[in-house]
Design a protein that fits this description.
heterodimer, A: mainly alpha, 5 helices, B: 8 strands, about 15% strand, globular
Chain lengths: ~120, ~260
């Protein structure tokens, strides 16, 4: 029984040794990869940004209700909903909704200055 | 400022530039301060019409952000002895400039549109009463930008079926989309020597108006001597008694009315 137990323990020890060797090899490979990356300083590729431009041809593809607002933004470049409403003659709330729609479509960006929200042409 | 008129057509050869030059000259002769600006960058013509061989700055330079509009405008009031100021803005006719303008990026076109949308107030500051934009025929960035930034657009067409159908498409695709105030001028309407009867003329104009769903502001006959003068004569200034000049005076009056309504 004792002999059998001793053999079993040796077998386990042998397996543990093999596993240890495997782990050492894996750590070594990891270290080599990391060293190579740092030495070569491989740049991490940035995702391509899709920019939407409001040029004259694009204006023609917009729905009618958005085109007027977009055209005013082409003139002003940066404006509040109130600024745009003063140009179009429509209500501020209407322009605010349309400007947000253009922002959601990717044509405008939004920024805050104090208490006011400005829409900016991309 | 009284207004900005863009003169456009669906294709070349309709007499668009001839009308633009003589309309601007008519306003200047009547005592208005006028600026006539060439936005036809593919085929500039004002340098030839006014015999300008050297210019410090062109309209191209203005759109490229290299100078303000006042540096582009050339004062011809002294040369033509007009009552009002008669300025012209010339597009650069050099091959490099034409090549440069047809290969502009979309980003540049956005900046150009912004400059044009603000041009009316720039001209207003210079005490200009009327600005006339001579555009490229057809649907190009430069012509759409000019049409978009004007108060009223005058489409010049001949009785050629291609002109009428092309204009119909252009009105549907551009003018209606921008809700632009648009009027039609029928040029070279019929030969001067063989005019249509009044009834025939009325029927023809009515047919065009219903096809285009736009009002015809004026029809100008085909004058052989205007064509023969080959741009050497600005009829509105040099031939005050000519029927072509009278047609232009009537057009100027109608346009003024249309801009005020």
């Amino acid at each position: 029984m004792t002999e059998q137990r001793r053999r079993f323990e040796l077998l386990i020890l042998d397996e543990l040794r093999k596993m240890n060797e495997k782990l050492d090899r894996m750590i070594k490979i990891d270290e080599e990869i990391l060293r190579g990356l740092l030495e070569n300083r491989m740049p991490v590729e940035e995702p391509i940004k899709f920019e939407k431009n409001l040029d004259a041809m694009t204006l023609l593809t917009l729905p009618d209700n958005l085109r007027k607002t977009a055209l005013v933004m082409c003139k002003l470049s940066e404006a509040t909903a109130q600024d745009v409403a003063s140009e179009t003659g429509r209500k501020r709330a209407v322009e605010s909704a349309l400007l947000n729609e253009l922002a959601a479509m990717g044509y405008l960006a939004k920024k805050r200055k104090g208490r006011k929200i400005y829409f900016v042409l991309r | 400022m009284n207004g900005v008129v863009s003169i456009h057509s669906s294709r070349g050869g309709t007499g668009k530039s001839l009308i633009a030059v003589n309309l601007a000259a008519t306003y200047a002769k009547q005592g208005m301060n006028v600026s006539l600006i060439d936005f036809d960058f593919r085929a500039p013509s004002l340098n030839t019409v006014f015999d300008i061989s050297k210019m410090e700055y062109s309209v191209n330079d203005f759109l490229n952000g290299q100078c303000p509009i006042e540096d582009v405008l050339i004062d011809l009031s002294g040369k033509y002895r007009t009552k009002g100021k008669f300025f012209i803005g010339v597009a650069d006719p050099s091959l490099e400039a034409i090549r440069d303008m047809i290969s502009k990026s979309r980003k540049w076109e956005i900046e150009a549109l912004k400059k044009l949308l603000n041009l009316k107030s720039d001209l207003d500051n210079l005490k200009i009463n009327y600005a006339i934009y001579d555009t490229s025929p057809g649907i190009l960035y430069s012509s759409i930008n000019a049409v978009t930034s004007s108060d009223l657009s005058l489409i010049v067409l001949t009785l050629d079926k291609l002109d009428i159908k092309g204009t119909q498409r252009m009105i549907r695709d551009i003018y209606d989309a921008f809700e632009k105030k648009t009027l039609i001028l029928v040029n070279k309407a019929f030969p001067e020597m063989t005019p249509l009867s009044e009834d025939e003329n009325k029927r023809m104009l009515h047919r065009i108006e219903s096809e285009l769903k736009k009002k015809i502001i004026c029809e100008i006959p085909c004058f052989c001597d205007v064509l023969a003068a080959s741009r050497n004569t600005i009829f509105a200034l040099e031939k005050p008694e000519h029927a072509f000049t009278e047609s232009l005076e009537a057009l100027a009056q109608e346009l003024t009315k249309a801009m005020n309504t």
